Amino acid sequence: MELTTERLKLRDFREGDWPAVLAYQSDPLYLRYYEWAERTPEAVQEFVQMFIDQPREVLRTCFQLVVTLKSNRQLIGNCGIRMSAPSARQAEIGYELSPQAWGRGYTSEAGRAILEFGFNELRLHRIIAWCNADNLASVHLLEKLGMQLEGRLREQEYFKSRWWDSLLFAILEHEWRAVQIEGQYER
């Protein structure tokens, strides 16, 4: 599966992707809001293999795609959408990007492509996303995508010797369509 945007190509994972994933998942800036203190080649290979196996599902429910730059095919992260069942009308999006690619609008570009896929191809009614409340860049991204804050789960996760709050965002199909018509997306 492939999705294409102005500057990006999103595609299914391949076996040779794991070294690039390891490189960005080992960056201390990336690790800041994850429970991991470090990433090993074995753990990342297992992580990538999980996504390689997804297209083999009879009725695919998870579409986690590698994000690459169209200009040079460099792998800079991944972005995807997951449903609980093939007939689900709600799904969850998730994304991660190499810190070296932050601040250039790539995540919002990939996120818009994933939302469009979810509403147009999967015919979803509602798409949600979770983020760490301290991750202000992720909060801003979700707002930029037109998602609305629906709730805060206080001290939901414990890692790195402290409790972390999580935020739940969502966008409904008719809200997303209105954003498309009005051209409200920030660049």
Measured distance between first and last alpha carbons: 25 Å
Rg is 16 Å
In total, how many beta strands?
8
Strand content: 25-35%
State the CATH superfamily name. Answer: Gcn5-related N-acetyltransferase (GNAT)
Q: Looking at CATH, which topology would you report?
A: Aminopeptidase
CATH class: Alpha Beta
CATH architectural label:
3-Layer(aba) Sandwich
Shape: globular
Q: How confident is the prediction overall: mean pLDDT? A: 94
Q: In what order do the strands lie side by side in the largest sheet?
A: 1-2-3-4-5-6-8-7
Order of helices and strands: EEHHHEEEHEHEEH
Uncertain segments are none
Largest sheet: 8 strands, mixed
Tally of helical segments: 6
The computed structural class is alpha+beta
Helix content: 25-40%
Domain tally: 1
Q: Could you explain the architecture of this structure?
A:
This protein has an eight-stranded mixed sheet, sandwiched between helices. α1 crosses α3 (41-53). The longest helix has 16 residues, at 106-121. The chain has 187 residues and is α+β, with helices and mostly antiparallel strands. The protein is built from six helices and eight strands. The chain has a single domain, classed as Aminopeptidase. It has helices spanning 18-25, 28-31, 41-53, 106-121, 136-144, 173-182; strands spanning 2-4, 8-11, 62-69, 75-83, 90-97, 126-132, 148-159, 162-172.
